């Protein structure tokens, strides 16, 4: 479906992409991950000709896109939908007019335009907002409109550039579900660029890891997560956390801080026990009738004894969750 | 000093002046908007980050605009008198004034509109490109259409400046309220006429500003 061969691009004397080889099959949800500046957004833009490149080939459905002229490229793009981090809707146009815009650009003689717009709006579950302006919508709703706009031309491919990065976690989840649904029901191939591991884990069957303009790994997402956690650590930096792929069970502990005591407990735990733990949650919690600070950490069950000893030594209140 | 009675002052001096001012203002709003708009579109398109970058065209137009913007309007009028005579046939009256104001006002409007167009988020333009919009469609539907509210604000500012230009044009034979204030008020030491014209000008500016603000709120 999308085949990238030995793709290289320099910009301002800097090598942005270097010898990328990548194949994305029909029906894939392909994740391109990497820290910012890794070249993943540039690579994505090479797939619909928004970015040019110096050497190599990008072949989409048998079409060499670097051989298209300006007009052919326009028509090619109508078959590739794209959504963005900032939604990029026309602020002065209603939801209806925004979705209509791509059709208008091709003076499409589509019958029942109204019906088609309603169809895509139904798919993104936003029918009731058809005559509303984008500024009256929430971020998640705006992204749904952008998805509807990307789908109106019946694309075979949907490119997502950090499409969920500006959204709250639960809204993010609902957009990811929607993308999954689009992939499943319409058979649209989806390419997702993200710096968030959770997105790849949530929806991608395949992934490619980019760093410094080079493809460090590519293949089944599961394989990469299971077999190359070090690689993800190296190339994703702090954004990444290793998934629990070991046989150890993880347990959650809630550490309770009353009256602002033991506010340095996390660093003490880390220094004194040397145990790696994950901070799951922190904030104020209500305990029976008083309010206290609470921190939720996740550790392997094998480490419990050491953590317990340290917490008790400092006389910190805690409980297993 | 000759003293006019109120009725003569209004019907023979202020009202004809007001009429000329409105003619000059209306005419130059049309010509400056058209020329300024076209220039601004060429600038934004040929800008290095525009849809069709072209350094030569951009720099040439930009330089001409800068030259015209750096010469005070009163000097511009006088310098271009031969051109005005050639184009309009005379250098005195409303027609030549509109011509002079167009020469000096179009660069102003062009820069104001270019500023509006530059405000458009590049990512919005990229999105339009991504679903196959042509350069022309992007320019019209995205760049111009999305900046309409800021165009209104900038034009309000621009029109008030053009009103100022009409008054200056009055000093070199264009007529209008500027000429009234100068010849009847300043040179004839008639404070009543002087301050009445100032009052009328203030009212016009207020009206332009209020109308501009209302339109901005409506279109935003």
Short description:
The complex is a heterodimer of chains A (about 325) and B (about 220). Chain A is of the alpha/beta class and about 325 residues long.
Question: How would you characterize the overall build of this protein?
Answer:
The complex is a heterodimer of chains A (321) and B (220). Chain A is an alpha/beta fold. Chain A has eleven helices and 14 strands. Chain A has helices at 40-46, 70-77, 95-105, 113-123, 139-151, 169-186, 197-203, 221-227, 229-236, 265-273, 304-313, and strands spanning 2-11, 14-24, 29-33, 55-60, 63-64, 80-84, 157-161, 189-194, 206-211, 214-220, 250-257, 278-287, 290-300, 317-320. In chain A, helix 5 packs parallel to helix 6 (169-186). Chain B contains ten helices and no strands. The interface between A and B is medium-sized, with 27 and 20 residues.
List the helices and strands and how they pair.
The complex is a heterodimer of chains A (321) and B (220).
Chain A: E1 2-11, E2 14-24, E3 29-33, H1 40-46, E4 55-60, E5 63-64, H2 70-77, E6 80-84, H3 95-105, H4 113-123, H5 139-151, E7 157-161, H6 169-186, E8 189-194, H7 197-203, E9 206-211, E10 214-220, H8 221-227, H9 229-236, E11 250-257, H10 265-273, E12 278-287, E13 290-300, H11 304-313, E14 317-320
Parallel strand pairs in A: 3-8, 3-9, 6-7, 7-8
Antiparallel strand pairs in A: 1-2, 1-4, 4-5, 9-10, 11-13, 11-14, 12-13
Chain B: H1 6-46, H2 55-70, H3 73-79, H4 81-88, H5 94-118, H6 122-130, H7 135-146, H8 148-174, H9 177-186, H10 191-219
Helix pairs in contact in B: 1-2, 1-5, 1-8, 1-9, 2-5, 3-8, 4-5, 5-8, 6-7, 8-9, 8-10, 9-10
């Amino acid at each position: 479906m999308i085949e990238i061969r030995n793709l290289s691009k320099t910009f301002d004397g800097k090598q942005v992409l270097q010898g990328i080889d990548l194949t994305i099959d029909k029906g894939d949800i392909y994740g391109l991950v990497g820290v910012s500046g890794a070249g993943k957004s540039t690579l994505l833009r090479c797939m619909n000709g928004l970015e040019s490149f110096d050497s190599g080939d990008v072949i989409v459905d048998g079409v060499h896109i670097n051989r298209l002229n300006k007009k052919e490229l326009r028509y090619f793009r109508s078959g590739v939908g794209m959504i963005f981090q900032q939604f990029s809707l026309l602020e002065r146009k209603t939801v209806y007019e925004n979705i209509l815009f791509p059709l208008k650009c091709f003076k499409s003689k589509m019958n029942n335009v109204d019906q088609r717009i309603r169809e895509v709006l139904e798919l993104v579950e936003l029918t009731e907002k058809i005559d509303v302006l984008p500024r009256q919508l929430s971020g998640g709703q705006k992204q749904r409109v952008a998805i509807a706009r990307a789908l109106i031309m019946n694309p075979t491919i949907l490119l997502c550039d950090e499409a969920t990065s500006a959204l709250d976690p639960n809204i993010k989840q609902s957009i990811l579900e929607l993308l999954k649904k689009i992939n499943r029901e319409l058979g649209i191939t989806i390419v997702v660029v993200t710096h968030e591991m959770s997105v790849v884990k949530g929806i991608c069957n395949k992934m490619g890891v980019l760093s410094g303009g080079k493809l460090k790994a590519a293949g089944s997402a599961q394989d990469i997560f299971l077999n190359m956690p070090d690689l993800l650590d190296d190339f994703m930096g702090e954004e990444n956390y290793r998934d629990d792929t070991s046989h150890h069970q993880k347990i959650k502990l809630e550490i309770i801080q009353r009256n602002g005591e033991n506010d340095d407990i996390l660093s003490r735990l880390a220094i004194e026990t040397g145990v790696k733990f994950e901070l799951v949650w922190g904030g104020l919690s209500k305990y029976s009738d008083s309010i206290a600070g609470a921190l939720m950490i996740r550790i392997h069950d094998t480490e419990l004894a050491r953590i317990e000893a340290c917490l008790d030594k400092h006389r910190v209140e805690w409980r297993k969750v | 000093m000759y003293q006019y009675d109120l009725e003569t002052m209004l019907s023979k001096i202020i009202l004809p002046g007001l009429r000329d001012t409105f003619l000059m203002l209306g005419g130059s709003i049309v010509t400056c908007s058209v020329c300024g708009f076209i220039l601004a579109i060429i600038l934004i398109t040929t800008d290095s980050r525009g849809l069709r970058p072209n350094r030569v065209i951009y720099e040439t137009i930009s330089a001409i605009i800068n030259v015209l913007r750096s010469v005070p309007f009163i000097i511009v009028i006088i310098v271009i008198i031969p051109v005005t005579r050639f184009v309009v046939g005379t250098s005195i009256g409303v027609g030549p004034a509109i011509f002079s104001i167009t020469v000096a006002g179009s660069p102003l409007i062009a820069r104001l509109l270019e500023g509006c167009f530059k405000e458009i988020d590049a990512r919005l333009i990229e999105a339009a490109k991504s679903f196959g919009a042509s350069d022309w469609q992007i320019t019209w539907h995205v760049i111009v259409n999305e900046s309409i509210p800021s165009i209104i604000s900038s034009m309000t500012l621009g029109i008030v400046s053009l009103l100022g230009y009409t008054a200056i044009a009055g000093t070199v034979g264009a007529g209008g309220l500027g000429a009234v204030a100068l010849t009847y008020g300043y040179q004839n030491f008639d404070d009543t006429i002087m301050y009445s014209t100032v009052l009328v000008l203030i009212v016009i500016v207020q009206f332009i500003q209020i109308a501009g603000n209302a339109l901005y709120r409506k279109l935003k």
